[in-house]
Amino acid sequence: MLKPSSHATAVQGAASVSALAPAAPTREELLQAFRVMYLSRRLDDREILLKRQNRIFFQISGAGHEAIQTAAGMLLRPGHDWFYPYYRDRALRLALGVTARDMLLQAVGAAEDPASGGRQMPSHWSSPELHIVAGSSPTGTQFVQSVGCAQAGRYLHPDSDEVTLVAAGEGATSEGEFWEALNAACLEKIPVLFLIEDNGYAISVPVEYQTPGGNISALLTGHASLARFEVDGSDFDACWRTMGRAIAHCRQTRLPALVHAHVTRPYSHSLSDDEKLYKTAAERAAEHARDPLTRFPEWLLAEGVVDRHGLQIMAQEVDKEIQEATECALKAAPAELRSALEFLYSDRVDPTSSEFDSEPRFAGEPRTMVDEINLTLAEEMRRDERMVVFGEDVADCSREENLAQVKGKGGVFKATGGLQIEFGSRRCFNTPIAEAAILGRAIGMATRGMKPVAEIQFFDYIWPAMMQIRDEMANLRWRSNNGFSAPAVIRVATGGYLNGGAIYHSQCGESIFTHIPGLRVVMPSNALDACGLLRTAIRCDDPVLFLEHKRLYREPYNRASHPGPDFTIPFGKARIVKPGDGLTIVTFGALVQKSLQAAVQVEQKLGRASIEVIDLRSLAPYDWQAIMESVTKTNRVLIAHEDTLSWGYGAELAARIANELFEHLDAPVGRVAAMDTWVGYHHHLENEILPQAEDIAAEAERLLHY
Asked: Where does 8-332 sit in CATH, by number?
C-alpha cells in the first residue's frame, strides 16, 4: 500500500467525506498518470518550438497544472460525464481521450482538426463523443453553461449519476458568471463540479489583487449545498484522493462541489507574455520546486512504483508519439477557403425553406399578440417534452403550494401565464435576476438536445448576456465545425411607445444582433405572425432572438384568430401589407402600423400617390427578393424603423439598395427613425424622439416630389 501524501484538505459542506475516499491508484494507473502528465508537458514544449519556427501561430501552455488535471480526467468518465474545460486543460483532455495528433492538428489549423476544422486557435480541443464541449477564449463564460448542461442531464436522465465538470483559473472567479453559476447550481442542487486551478496569477495580476484574502475557497463559506475541497494541485496523490472525494460527493448526493487546487505556472501566461517582467527570480525558483513534472517522478521512484530506466522508456515512447504526430500535422492540409460559411447555421433544418410555409386554419375569436404567444408556447410544450421555458418572473408562482390560493404571475406581460400550472415547475420556472446565467444555462441545455425558450424580461437588460449571445451561443456550431450547437430561443420584450418607459424600458437595438453571424432575428408586428414565427423559432435548429414589441402585445388592430397548432412562417419571407406602385416603405415592428397610417395620409393628400408597405417580419435573414421586386417597380424607397437613425438597421438596407438597385432609383433612399438620443419619460418628449406617422408621411412626400 502506498502511503498517502498530506496535502489534501476537505473543507465544509462535504457529506461523509471519509466515506467518499476513492481507492488508491494502482501501479498501472500511476504509470498512466505519469504518461499523461509527461505527454502534456512535452506537447507544450513542442508547440513552443513550432511557434518559434513560425509553423504555428499561437501557444498557451498547461504547464504546472498537470497533476490535478490528470487526476480529474482519470477519475471521471468520458462519454458519460460532461466537461467544460478551459484553455490550460491539456492534461485533462489527454486523460479523457484526446490525442497528441488531435492537439497538433489544431495547432497548425488543419482541416482535419477534429475539434474545429482549423477554426479555433490551439488549446480549444473538444469532442462530442467524449462529451468535451467546445470551449471559447473568454474567461468564465463556461461556468453558467455547465449549470445548464447539468440541469439538462437531470431532466433527460434523472437516474444517471453523471457529473458535469467545469474548470477555470482563479482569475476567472472574478467574473460575474462564476458567481451566477454557483448561485444557480446551489439553488437548483445539481451535480456541477467546479475545478479552480489556482496558479496565483491572472496573466500578471497576482491572486491577492484578484480575490479578497487571496483564497477563493474562503470566500465561498456559507454557500448552501456546496461542498468545498482545497488541495495542493501539484501533488498527484493528494489530487487523486481529493478529486475522488469530490466526484463521489457529486455522484452520491447529486449536489455541487468545488475543488480549489493550488498549482504552479512555470511558463509564462503564453508566448505573448514574459513573466520575468513581473515575477522575481525567487518566485520562479519556488514554482520550479513545486513543478509536478519534477515532484511526481521522484515520488514514483521513492515509492518503488518504477525505476529510472522505466521512466526513461516511457519518456522515449511519448517523445516518439509526439514526433510522429508533429510530422502528420505539418503535412495536413489547412481548412479550405470555400468552407468559411459552412456550419454557420444548421445543415439539418432550414427555417427559410418552404417546409415552414403553411396555410392557417383559423378557429375561434380574434386573439391579441400576447395571447397568441402564450398559446403557441403551450402548444409547442405539449408537442415537445424537451422544451422548457424560464426567466425572471415567467412562472405562475415559485411556491407551488400557493398556486391553489393565487392567480399566478406568468410573466410581467402575462406571456407565460398558466405554463407552470399545466407543465409543472420542471418545465416552466423562475430564475434569479442574472441575464448571463439565464442565457448561459440555455446554451448548456440546448447543447444537450433540449429546447430552451429563455425570456429576457426587457430588451434594455439584455446587455449582461451579450457575451453569452455573441461569443458563445451564435458561434458554437461554427467554432466546433458542427460538433456542438445551441439552438435556443431568446424571447425579449422590446420597444417604446408605452408612455413612461423612458431610458430603461424603451430600448430597441436590433441592428446590434442582426450583425452577429449565426443568430436568427425575427420581430412580428401582429398576432398571426407572432404565432407562426415563434413556432418556426422553436422548431428551428439555430439560436433565435425573438423580439416582441411591448406596444403591440394588446393592440386591437393586430389581432387574429388562432391559425392552428402547426402554423409556421418561414424566416426571411416578408409580407406585403399594402400594395402600391409609387413608393416602397420597408419597415417592421411598431412602425408597420405607423407606415400604413402615413401611406393613407399621403395618398389622400396627393391623390395620385400609391404606396407599397412591406413588413420584413424577419430581420436576419431578411427578404431581399421582396425589397428588390418592390423597388424596381416603384423606383422609390423609404426605410422606417424605431431604433436610432445613425448606424441603425436601415443603414444596411439603404447601402445595399443604393449599391445593387441604383439604376432603378428615381430618388434618394429615404430613412425615418428615432433621434440619436435616449427615449424620454414624458410622453411629449417620447413622441418627439421616436418616429411618428407624420414623420414617415413627410419623408414619403419628399421622395414622391423628388
From this structure: 3.40.50.970
Q: Evaluate if residue 2 carries a pLDDT over 80.
A: no
pLDDT at position 5 over 70: no
Cβ contact 82:150 at 8 Å: yes
Strands across the sheet containing 451-456: 428-430, 387-391, 451-456, 489-494, 544-549, 520-522, 618-620
In this prediction, residue 197 carries a pLDDT of 96
For range 503-510, the mean pLDDT: 94
Position 336 scores a pLDDT of 87
Residue 3: predicted pLDDT? 41
Whole-angstrom distance, CA of residue 434 vs CA of residue 456: 10
Distance CA 541, CA 519 (A): 11
Compute the distance between CA of residue 159 and CA of residue 166 in angstroms, rounded to an integer.
21
Name the grid cell of 375: 398559446
Out of 131, 249, 505, 641, pick the active-site residue.
505
Q: Which of 104, 50, 53 is closest to 328 using CA atoms?
A: 104
Domain ranges across the chain:
8-332, 354-562, 575-705
Q: Give the rounded distance of the alpha carbon of 434 from its chain centre.
A: 14
DSSP 673-694: EE-SSPPPSSHHHHHHHS--HH
Q: What is the pLDDT of residues 615-662, one digit of tens each?
A: 999 999 999 999 999 999 999 999 999 999 999 999 999 999 999 999
Q: What is the pLDDT of residues 366-405, one digit of tens each?
A: 999 999 999 999 999 999 999 999 999 999 999 999 999 9
Q: Do domains 354-562 and 575-705 have the same CATH topology?
A: yes
Cell of 262: 493550488
Cα(587)–Cα(571) distance, rounded to whole angstroms?
Answer: 16
Domain 575-705: give its CATH architecture.
Answer: 3-Layer(aba) Sandwich (3.40)
435-447 helix and 142-156 helix, angle to the nearest 10 degrees: 50
SS3 585: strand
Residues 6+ apart with CB under 8 A from 600: none
Of 14 and 43, the one with more pLDDT: 43
pLDDT tops 90 at residue 167: yes
Cα angle 590, 591, 594; round to 5:
105
Quick: pLDDT tens for 397-408: 999 999 999 999
Q: Of 183, 99, 110, whose CA–CA distance to 330 is shortest? A: 110
Nearest to 296 by CA among 67, 68, 71, 70: 67
Highest CATH level, class, for 354-562:
alpha beta
Which residue type, as a one-letter code, is found at position 398? S
Query: Would you say residue 10 has pLDDT above 80?
Result: no
Judge contact between 453 and 538, C-beta under 8 A.
yes
SS (H, E, C) 529-550: HHHHHHHHHHHCCCCEEEEEEH
Cell 483564497 belongs to which residue? 215
Q: Is residue 631 a contact partner of residue 659, using CB atoms and an 8 Å limit?
A: no
Tell me the HSE value of 630 on the side-chain side, using a 13 A CA sphere: 28
Cα separations in angstroms, 624 against 87, 534, 612, 619: 41, 21, 15, 10
Cell of 154: 437531470
Dihedral over Cα of 371, 374, 380, 382: its sign: negative
- How far apart CA 276 and CA 636 sit, in angstroms, is 65
- Amino acid residing at 310: G
For the chain, give me the number of helices (H) and strands (E)? 23, 22
Q: Quick check: is 505 catalytic?
A: yes
Quick check: 115 and 412 in contact, CB under 8 A?
Answer: no
3-state SS, residue 135:
coil
Buried b vs exposed e over 658-680: b needs ≥16 C-beta within 10 Å? eeebeeebebebbbbbbeeeebb
